[in-house]
Amino acid sequence: MELQQIKTIIERYFEGNTSLAEEKQLNAYFSQENVHPDLKHYQPLFSFFNKEKQQEYNEPLPKITFKTKTSFYVFLATGIASSFLLVFSVFLWQNKHAQKSIPSAENKALAMQNTQELLKMMTDVIGEGKEQLRYIEKIQETKNKIIKTKQ
Q1: Which of 25-34, 69-78, 94-103 has the lowest mean pLDDT?
Q2: pLDDT tens-digit profile of 30-65?
Q3: What angle do CA 7, 12, 9 make, to 5 degrees?
Q4: Predicted local confidence at residue 103, as pLDDT
Q5: Nearest of 53, 48, 34 to residue 6 by alpha carbon
Q6: What was the pLDDT predicted at 81?
Q7: Overall pTM > 0.70
Q8: Distances (CA, A) of 97 to 90, 92, 103
């Protein structure tokens, strides 16, 4: 294989973007004796991976057994209590953070002042709109007078 091609596959390998075929190419390349001196430091890594792939765990997994029914119920009660404790602590944590977000009296006063200013600006705009309607009313009256004189 070409050195530059191996280097690009190694970069992609450490980024997690290689296919299985490319990983097999890397394993085959680093299992050889003649590896390029620039890439020699990767050879122990790939030989370790190959050795670890060959290991197997043949022992059976330990089974959880209870000697008496009371030990089962104690185990069950402990699980339920820990679940309840977890839910309760999450509730308290959320409640604590919710209290921090309650606005202070100063913030309420500032919000009220901003709202009042906004409402005043809106009434000013509406008042200007009413003045423009008065001009329309005058135009309407003049138009009616003209129409009456023509008849």
Answers
A1: 94-103
A2: 888 888 888 889 899 888 888 888 888 888 888 877
A3: 35
A4: 62
A5: 34
A6: 92
A7: no
A8: 11, 9, 13
- One-letter amino acid at 125 equals V
- Three-class SS of residue 94? helix
CA dist., res. 24 & res. 8, Å (int): 15
How far is CA 96 from each of CA 89, 93, 102, 107, rounded to the nearest angstrom?
10, 5, 11, 20
Judged on CB neighbours under 10 Å (0-12, 13-18, 19+), 30 is: buried
Burial of 12: CB neighbours in 10 Å, binned 0-12, 13-18, 19+: middle
Residue 72 is encoded by which pair of tokens? 């089962």
Which residues lie below 8 Å from residue 46, measured CB to CB, with a gap of 6+? 26, 27, 30, 31
Q: How far apart are CA 53 and CA 48, in angstroms?
A: 9
Instruction: Specify the amino acid at residue 20.
Output: L
Token pair listed for 71: 């030990």
Closest residue by Cα to residue 15 from 25, 7, 27: 7
pLDDT (tens digit per residue) in 121-131: 888 888 777 77
